[in-house]
């Protein structure tokens, strides 16, 4: 089965493969907003869906599988993006990443693809460091060994990993984190408490991603 790609943003700029979260499709409101913000900043995104999510469009409701079971699907998406770029004469290392579950899956294939020269960077938007309410079940072992340049955008009160929790983890020096004050998993803050709006935090995240990808492609 070929990988269906949903492209946004101008040709010629840094390219980012962007996978969806566990419960929302590649064209969900959040993914549409983020892709549009990145496009405004000159970043071209290629979105795709894991098979379980694509099946939901035909009425087959499937839960998200374990992240390790969809690694080949992410690898196939990267290959598909390179095919498109090569056909247009602009093939080059690309960045990979995703929202929550999608970012976690990307992080699990990033090192091998970086070593192979097909990927230049990793971007995780709301990384699921642990399941909500289960801080002892951390998903960070591979993050300590990453050498691929990595940006994680994370709300400070994200139930999948708050700022105080993340401060205790052993993370690779290749990882930088853009904290979004009082943001939750979708980066939404409590405006009256933080003084920020959801739109502001989404824009801040997009700014950080765009600057990071330009830095890696320069």
Intertermini distance:
34 Å
Strand order, main sheet: write it out.
1-3-2-4-5-6-7
The helix-strand sequence is EEHEHHEHEEHEHH
What is the name of the CATH topology? Answer: Rossmann fold
Figure out the total of helices. 7
CATH H-level name... which superfamily?
Alpha/Beta hydrolase fold, catalytic domain
Biggest sheet features: 7 strands, mixed
Number of E-state strands: 7
> Which CATH architecture would you pick?
3-Layer(aba) Sandwich
Model description:
Helices cover 36% and strands 17% of the residues. It is α/β, with parallel strands linked by helices and 218 residues long. A 7-stranded mixed sheet has the order 1-3-2-4-5-6-7, with helices on both faces. Helix 4 (101-115) links the parallel strand 4 (94-99) and strand 5. Helix 1 (29-40) crosses helix 7. 39% of the residues are buried. The mean pLDDT is 95.
């Amino acid at each position: 089965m070929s990988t269906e790609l949903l492209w946004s943003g101008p040709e010629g700029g840094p390219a980012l493969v962007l996978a969806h979260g566990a419960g929302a499709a590649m064209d969900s409101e959040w993914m549409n907003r983020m892709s549009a913000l990145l496009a405004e900043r000159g970043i071209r995104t290629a979105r795709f869906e894991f098979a379980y999510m694509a099946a939901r469009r035909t009425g087959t409701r499937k839960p998200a599988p374990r992240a390790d079971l969809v690694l080949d699907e992410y690898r196939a998406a990267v290959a598909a993006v390179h095919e498109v770029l090569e056909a247009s004469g602009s093939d080059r290392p690309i960045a990979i990443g995703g929202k929550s579950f999608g970012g976690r899956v990307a992080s699990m294939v990033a090192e091998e693809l970086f070593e192979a020269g097909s990927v230049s960077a990793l971007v995780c938007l709301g990384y699921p460091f642990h399941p909500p309410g289960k801080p002892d079940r951390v998903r960070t072992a591979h993050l300590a060994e990453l050498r691929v340049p990595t940006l994680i955008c994370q709300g400070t009160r994200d139930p999948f990993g708050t700022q105080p929790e993340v401060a205790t983890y052993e993370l690779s020096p290749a990882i930088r984190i853009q904290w979004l004050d009082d943001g939750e998993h979708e980066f939404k803050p409590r405006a009256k408490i933080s003084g920020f709006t959801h739109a502001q935090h989404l824009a801040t995240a997009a700014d950080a991603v765009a600057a990071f990808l330009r830095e890696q492609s320069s």
